[in-house]
Amino acid sequence: MAGSVEVLLHGGMVMVFGQPWDSPACDGATVVATPVGELCTGLCGETISDGDRGFIRPHIGGDTGRPEEDVEFKPIHAECDLRNVLGHQFGICGCAADGGAGRDNARRVLALVNEQREAQGAGPLW
């Protein structure tokens, strides 16, 4: 997926796919087409399907030493991204016996976050 490395490196840019959700991360984000069929980079091992929500994240993996040539933009399900950030708080992470991988574990983190939001009088993320 092509993107502007200049904006990414010097101005910040958030790209989301699917229906935006109740998160500051979506405020002002660029909504892009859902990358159906591409592999999620969030350890779930699943491909992105129509109706999924998530982010397009930069990955620098080349060896030229020039980010403008080495960066690729890859998708991650929103719940997989959430698990990567908050999973440890709920014991659903690499420290856990099952390693926290898998989309079911990502969905468990989302459910736990939504439970906390409900207890605080907020609506679900999605």
How would you describe what is shown here?
- By secondary structure, the chain is of the alpha+beta class.
- The chain has one domain.
- Helices cover 29% and strands 16% of the residues.
- The chain is built from four helices and four strands.
- It has helices at residues 5-10, 67-70, 78-86, 103-119, and strands at residues 15-17, 30-32, 54-60, 71-77.
- The protein has a four-stranded mixed β-sheet.
- Helix 3 (78-86) crosses helix 4 (103-119).
- It starts with a helix and ends in a 7-residue tail after the last helix.
- 21% of the residues are buried.
**Global mean pLDDT:** 84
Q: Strand count, sense and closure of the main sheet?
A: 4 strands, mixed
The gross shape turns out to be globular
The percent of residues in helical segments reads 25-40%
The helix count comes to: 4
Q: Which band does the percent of strand residues land in?
A: 15-25%
Structural domain tally: 1
User: Got a strand count?
Assistant: 4
Element-by-element helix/strand order: HEEEHEHH
Model regions low in confidence, pLDDT < 50 over at least 5 residues: 7-11
Distance between the termini: 26 Å
Q: Given the helix and strand composition, which structural class is it?
A: alpha+beta
- Report Rg: 15 Å
Give a quick set of tags describing it.
126 residues; alpha+beta; four-stranded mixed sheet; 4 strands; 16% strand
